[in-house]
Specification:
With 317 residues, this protein is an all-alpha fold. It folds into two domains: 2-76, no CATH class; 96-313, MetI-like (MetI-like fold, Orthogonal Bundle), CATH 1.10.3720. The protein has 13 helices and no strands.
Length: 317
């Protein structure tokens, strides 16, 4: 079947790309200056102590041997042990994902809920008040970094108004309400730049489809402006919006690193920053590889959505 062949090719391409990415990640991290054992023990450590720690961590083994050992561990589910924390990396990442995954999902949902109605409304009434507001929002949202938005939210909403907590995460054991309350402001800080871009893309896509012949034909047959918009224009304008949403995932992940540090959230972004500063190579390697896998899987999902939104692609192999 064409669909199964296409899916198998995509999965095969994902595996090959992920293997190449793992090799590049390993070589780049190995090429970084500094030595993990020296950083962990400090500058005053004796050379024999540093050598003993390097041997214990396996850093004295050949480069190819270390890469093969790491890749084999990844395939078997054993991501190694953190140099800094002394715990399995898999459990460390899983604990941090319990914060980052809800954060990014809420931010993505917020950006869609903001950008789609605003972009469609602005395109339906060009040069009107809503269009002007959408243009202003897009310009400001794209220009202002998400960590600066986070700082403004902490100063204004959390400290100024006292509505929400300024930072930290109580943990899911404290209750879903308390946990989600701690994620509201970081999610808004992440969502604003993404929704600003999506608003602009949505507006442009809707205006472009509005000028197509099939929309004008539907209007000429007596279909009202509103029904033509939602039955014909918006469904056909979703393809570039979905494309942009998929392209924004890497920026959402990179933004989470900054936002989590601003709000002192124990997420995967904070873990990556701490591991990089502490030269915890095994954690950095696995976190970056996981980020790469997430981006690839999202691209697969976006590609699958193309066939749902555009029936012309369903028969292509």
């Amino acid at each position: 079947m064409p669909a199964l062949k296409k899916l198998s090719r995509q999965i095969g391409g994902l595996v090959i790309t992920l293997w190449i990415a793992s090799l590049v990640i390993f070589l780049l991290i190995e090429a970084a200056p500094g030595d993990a054992a020296s950083i962990m023990l400090g500058t005053n450590a004796a050379p024999d102590t540093v050598a003993a720690l390097r041997s214990e961590l396996g850093l004295d083994r050949p480069l190819l041997w270390r890469y093969a050992g790491w890749l084999g561990g990844v395939l078997s589910g054993d991501l190694g042990t953190s140099y800094t924390y002394g715990v399995p990396v898999a459990g460390l990442i899983a604990d941090r994902l319990a914060v980052t995954v809800p954060l990014t999902l809420i931010a993505t949902l917020l950006s869609i809920l903001i950008s789609l109605p605003l972009g469609v409304w602005a395109a339906n009434r060009p040069n009107g008040p809503v269009d002007t507001l959408a243009s202003l929002f897009s310009q400001v949202g794209i220009a202002v970094p998400n960590f600066w938005i986070g700082l403004l939210l902490i100063l204004g909403v959390a400290l100024g108004l006292g509505w929400l907590t300024p930072g930290g995460f109580p943990g899911w054991q404290a209750g879903i309400g308390a946990a989600f309350e701690a994620l509201i402001l970081p999610s808004i800080a992440l969502a604003v730049p993404q929704s600003a871009v999506l608003t602009r893309v949505t507006r442009a896509a809707v205006i472009e489809v509005t000028n197509e012949d099939f929309v004008r034909t539907a209007r000429a047959k007596g279909l009202s402006r509103g029904r033509a918009l939602w039955r014909h224009t918006v469904p056909n304008a979703l393809l570039p919006v979905v494309t942009m949403l998929g392209l924004q995932i890497p920026f959402l992940i990179s933004g989470a690193v900054l936002v989590e540090n601003v709000f002192t959230l124990p997420g995967i972004g904070t873990l990556a920053y701490q591991a990089l500063s502490q030269r915890d190579l095994i954690v950095v390697q696995n976190v970056v590889l996981m980020f790469t896998l997430i981006v690839m899987v999202v691209n697969l999902i976006v590609d699958a959505l193309y066939t749902v939104l555009d029936p012309r692609l369903r028969g292509r192999v």
